[in-house]
Design brief:
By secondary structure, the protein is mainly α. It is built from 2 helices and 2 strands. The protein has one domain. 31% of the residues lie in helices and 7% in strands.
Length: 84
């Protein structure tokens, strides 16, 4: 009796997997594919430009290593040639 249950469950799982393979992914069926926004054009700044930024997280000088990421947020617009 238990063998029949296991065999029946295995058959159902196999059919479900087969249906998923034949149906393709959501992208192939055209379902709600989200597109990423176009990134802004690169901005070139002059050497010596001043950026006013605030650290997102503190940096522990005793634990920090070269190459560790440091995240910050600009707190003021950057001015270049009188334009921000």
């Amino acid at each position: 009796m238990a063998f029949r249950r296991v065999l029946g469950l295995l058959a159902l799982v196999s059919l479900a997997a087969l249906a998923g393979v034949q149906g393709g992914s959501a992208m192939n069926r055209g379902w709600a594919a989200t597109t990423l926004p176009t990134p802004p054009a690169p901005v070139h700044m002059e050497n010596g430009s001043i950026l006013y930024a605030e650290l997102s997280k503190t940096v522990d000088a005793r634990k920090a290593k070269v190459g560790d990421p440091v995240n910050a947020v600009l707190v003021a617009d950057v001015v270049s040639h009188g334009k921000s």
